[in-house]
Every structure is written in C-alpha cells, then in structure tokens.
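> example.struct
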C-alpha cells in the first residue's frame, strides 16, 4: 500500500511538473493589443504594426507601410513568452526567435530593444521602439 501511494505521488508530481514546463511564461502586463512604429530615420526600414499578445502564449501581428496603418504588408502569428524584462517571439515558419528586452514605462507603454533576431528578418541591426496599448 505504501509503495502504491509513493508511486501515485511520483506520477502526480511528474504530471504536474510537465504541465508547468509546457505552460508558456507570459508577463500579464504585456497581454492585450498594442501598436508601434519603427522610426523612419532609424537603422532599419520604417514599419508600423498592431499586435495582440494573448494569455495562452500566442500572438498575432500585422505590419503596415504607413504610420496611419492603412497599407498592410503582411500578418504573422506564433508564440511568445516574457518574463524578467525579456520577451521572446517565435513566429510560425521562422526557425529562430526574435528576442527583445523590455521596460514597462507605465501600464499602457512599453519600450523594447531588439537583441536577437532570425537571420531571415528584414532588419539585422539592433534597434529599439516603444509600443502603446490599444484601448477599446
């Protein structure tokens, strides 16, 4: 009986531990819809975008040619995880993640610095930008 109880506890611990490992780590402060721009006079081509970080660890993002966000270029989706000032985006179909450090300015503003990117990305320079939460 004692052996069966020990075995049951080991199986339960392994199952719960496996769930914890598979659950993405998402900073709740980043969950929601955001918009941003990459500077026109920066190191990389100008872009603007809208993204949505979902609590389940998935994201969608649409890129635009213009700041008014009327000329869509493309949309992407994938998974994200963020904690301790580091945000990692894994876009579907792209081998390596984009990694950013981030600082929350306030509940509706976050500042990012790109520190790692997939070699196929449109910009291979390190750059920074600020995103603003979309309300309503």
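> example.seq
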């Amino acid at each position: 009986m004692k052996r069966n109880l020990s075995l049951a506890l080991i199986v339960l611990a392994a199952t719960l531990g496996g769930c914890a490992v598979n659950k993405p780590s998402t900073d709740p402060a980043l969950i929601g819809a955001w918009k941003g721009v990459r500077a026109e006079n920066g190191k990389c081509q100008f872009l603007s975008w809208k993204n949505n970080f979902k609590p389940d660890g998935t994201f969608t993002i649409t890129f635009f040619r213009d700041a008014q966000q009327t000329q869509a270029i493309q949309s992407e989706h994938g998974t994200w995880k963020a904690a301790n000032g580091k945000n990692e985006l894994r876009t579907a179909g792209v081998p390596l993640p984009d990694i950013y450090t981030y600082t929350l300015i306030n509940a509706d503003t976050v500042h990012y610095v790109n520190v790692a990117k997939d070699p196929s990305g449109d910009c291979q320079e390190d750059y920074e930008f600020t995103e603003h939460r979309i309300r309503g």
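> remarks
Residues 4-21 have pLDDT under 50 and may be disordered.
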